[in-house]
Design a protein that fits this description.
Layout lengths: L1 H9 L7 H15 L11 H8 L3 H13 L3 E4 L3 E4 L9 E6 L4 H14 L4 E6 L4 H11 L5 E4 L5 H7 L7 E5 L9 E5 L2 H10 L1 H4 L4 E5 L8 H13 L4 E4 L11 E5 L2 H13 L9 E5 L3 H5 L5 E5 L1 H14 L4 E4 L1 E4 L5
Parallel strand pairs: 3-4, 3-5, 5-6, 6-7, 7-13, 8-9, 8-10, 10-11, 11-12
Antiparallel strand pairs: 1-2, 12-14
């Protein structure tokens, strides 16, 4: 009775009530394939004897599984599995960096695709390893699926490996957890190089390029490495600053922003000095959204399709067809460079 093994594991999760341990244990058993449609659940009496919980606790768990449409009861015969589509009945923990525009788009599409039968609880770690570990500890065992944008460190890797590969989807950033784990990510190094190279004729018209990059933020190190390789390969004058300082904008420079707060401050100064975006200076940003299409005549962006990332993640959850996917990163050219 594999079901007892799953329940025994969940007994170690102190934050789960007894009936929640039973419900999650049975769902995990169905999800693993050890319980299939038509199989009978252990009788109430067997569960009382084997698990050691009160009869009313067992009944409560079985009735909740009935309400979810996963099992049915047959008079005098017991409870039987009638659906293995457990993804539509589990709670999902979504752990993200922060609620920025592009991550909000990811959440909205995921929410829409999974419909109302799925509960999605959102948590933010803000690239803080202590917070990341605390959140993972607090949600352990409480959810049927974990969708996580990881911090790319060994410490966070060890934390995530405590979650079974059948319950975890890594999104946005790659973290090597082994061949059994599912990911839906973007690629930074080669895509950034390729897109900057596409813009080389326009970039060469500027006196230099300024990148705003902070090592203490969640910026991918691959972006910095790609930028440095590009400017050195093409003999382009460059500067790296932590953030945009008000009043520092200059003509004939190309400004490359990652954080939108730098972009908005830069654009505000351009308007104050009557600088024409795309004429007097260039502006290029990462992570596109609709506002960048509308502001200042349109801001060119290097961006992953976060809608597609969410659609692929949702398909993995709904179809239980876990895979490894890299979502393409594209150059969205407007007139700002």
């Amino acid at each position: 009775m594999k079901i007892l093994d799953f329940i025994e594991q969940l007994k170690q999760v102190k934050s789960l009530s007894k009936h929640e341990q039973l419900v999650h244990g049975i769902i995990d058993t169905i999800n693993s394939g050890h319980l299939q449609i038509g199989d009978q659940l252990p009788s109430i009496n067997v569960m009382v004897n084997e698990v050691g919980y009160a009869r009313k606790t067992i009944v409560k768990a079985y009735e909740e599984l009935k309400d979810k449409g996963l099992v049915e009861s047959k008079k005098t015969k017991g409870y039987f599995v009638i659906s293995d589509n457990v993804a539509l009945y589990v709670k999902i923990a979504l752990l993200m960096y922060s609620f920025q525009k592009f991550q909000q788009e990811f959440y909205n599409v995921l929410r829409k695709e999974l419909e109302d039968k799925v509960q999605i609880d959102v948590f933010f770690h803000h690239n803080n390893e202590d917070m990341f570990e605390t959140i993972c500890s607090n949600v352990a065992g409480k959810y049927g699926m974990y969708v996580v944008a990881p911090i790319q460190t060994e410490r966070c890797k060890s934390v995530l490996k405590k979650i079974g590969p059948e319950k975890l989807i890594v999104v946005d950033r790659f973290l090597d957890l082994g061949t059994n784990y599912t990911y839906v990510i973007q690629e930074f190094m080669q895509s950034t190089l390729l897109n900057l190279q596409t813009l080389l004729p326009k970039i060469k018209k500027r006196e230099g390029i300024v990148l705003f990059y902070r090592e203490d933020r969640d910026y991918p190190i691959e972006l910095l490495n790609a930028f440095l390789e590009f400017v050195q390969k093409n003999n382009i004058k460059f500067k790296i600053a932590k953030s945009y300082e008000s009043g520092s904008v200059q003509k004939d420079q190309l400004y490359l922003t990652i954080d939108d707060s730098d972009l908005w401050s830069l654009l505000k100064d351009c308007r104050s000095y009557d600088f024409r975006i795309g004429k007097d200076l260039g502006v290029l940003s990462f992570n596109d959204h609709i506002v960048k299409e509308l502001v200042s005549g349109g801001i060119s962006s290097i961006s992953t399709d976060f809608k597609q990332m969410a659609l692929t993640t949702a398909a993995n959850i709904k179809e239980l067809s876990f895979s490894k996917s890299i979502i393409p990163t594209s150059l969205i050219e407007r007139d700002s460079v």
